[in-house]
Amino acid sequence: MSSAHPAVFLGHGSPMLAIEPNRYADGWRQLGRSLPRPRAILAVSAHWYIRGTAVTAQAQPRTIHDFYGFPPALYAVQYPARGDPQLALRVASLLAPTAVRQDEDWGLDHGTWAVLRHMYPDADIPVVQLSIDASLGGAQHYALAQRLAPLRDEGVLVLGSGNVVHNLRALQFDAAAPTPAWARSFNTAVQAAIRERRHAALAAYEQLDAGAAMSVPTPEHYLPLLYVLALQRPGESAAVSLDGIELGAISMLCVQVGGD
Description:
single chain; Protocatechuate 4,5-dioxygenase, Chain B; globular
């Protein structure tokens, strides 16, 4: 059994999953109980998609409510985890020569806190977020993420948060409507490639399956998966812990690397 800390990708779905009873939140809670307790968390969220690479460097990052039109109860949620400025500097050193800005403005967006409030409800583990550089392609993100591998030996949980299928323009609100074939096909193709460790094909996701264009109309929700798979070591498993397609166009696929 590897002594390296597992890494996880979570399909985070709607912000409402943060406060409504649902099977995904149940799964995230179980995951938090089953993982070794990390000393810190490095989160790569779909919702910090910017030009360039940055890490949150505050001692106390703010809770960001980066969504519109939801109930007041959701905006009242706070996740008061501490930051970890030393981890932010460590990430910058690992990613060199890529320039990593030490950011004092961003905080924890809902891609991070909506899942962590279930995994670690006491908010007692320091959290740093790493941005997703919008100027890079899939293979470049994968190569960048590989440099983070030493963190797994330093007690850091690398958490990717996004959705393998994420097309808000194709949402179906009729519960009786069948899941579109393109969403099923791409979600299945991603799982097969994960099982077969075809990471290059996953990085070149645009050519992975005929459903790619509809499933990934923009890349920010898909790319966090690559940050987790890039940390898979020889002989380690990458296991699907949760799956499901919600509203016809949002995959809730969750993957754990290591821990076997």
